[in-house]
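W.,

You were right to be curious about this one. When I first looked at the sequence I had no strong expectations either way, so I just let the prediction run and decided to look at it fresh. Below is the sequence, 259 residues in total, followed by the output.
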Amino acid sequence: MRNAMGTEMSDPPVPIAGPTLEAEAVSKSFLSGVVRVQVLQSLSVAVYPGELTLISGPSGCGKSTLLSLLSGLQSPDGGRVRALGEDLASKDKRALERFRLHHTGFVFQGFNLFPALTAKEQVQLPLGYLGIGRRQSDERAMQVLEEVGMTHRADMRPAELSGGEKQRVAIARALAKEPQLLFADEPTSALDAENGQRVIDILHRIARSHGTTVLCVSHDPRAARHADRVLTMEDGAIRSDWQPSSTRSASATAKEPTV
């Protein structure tokens, strides 16, 4: 099977009508010195395609840990995580890396851009790992840079870009692979209000226009107004699961916490 870029895709997941991300009674703890700290305890949640789902809450509440488990960057101590219908625990390290390469994109707080590469080259980098040729990656890079409003900065390096521009390049890089799952960890925390709102708007548009599952972790209260769904966490548990009225009809009501 080939994707929209004409690239051969290995082991594609079977399309599913339900949630694309599921955590079932997951738990996770970390050792801090001689003390084991329980971060998540028997947490369950389902996340759906075509939506920007926001995980909010204070620092240390477990939201970044939950994102790491759902994206396969970490494994739970107990419980099960499924992504695109596949049990991540059933995959060895190599298969998990292959799954992330073909089906996921990541956006981080610190941008994670390479100083020596231009904006276009940053976006082309993951396409090379997929075996896409230079001409085709050039075209794809410019397409996604246009989508985030950065074609005019395509030949600029990170030192020549503002914080907001760097984050938009990082989003374009994540989007270039046409991932079904897009994870963003505190993407607005280093940005001012205007650029933070622009980044959230872009993530929301990606979810709607591409049908992508976009899962975003943020303690920024501005982000909640632009999400389709907000999961509020505290002390390692989901305390509320609600839909902002700005993205739903007036009849939409908050759902019970999924715990």
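Here's what jumped out at me. DSSP finds seven helices and ten strands in the chain. And, maybe more interesting for your project: The helical segments are 63-70, 93-103, 119-129, 134-147, 163-175, 193-210, 221-224.

Coffee later to discuss?

I.
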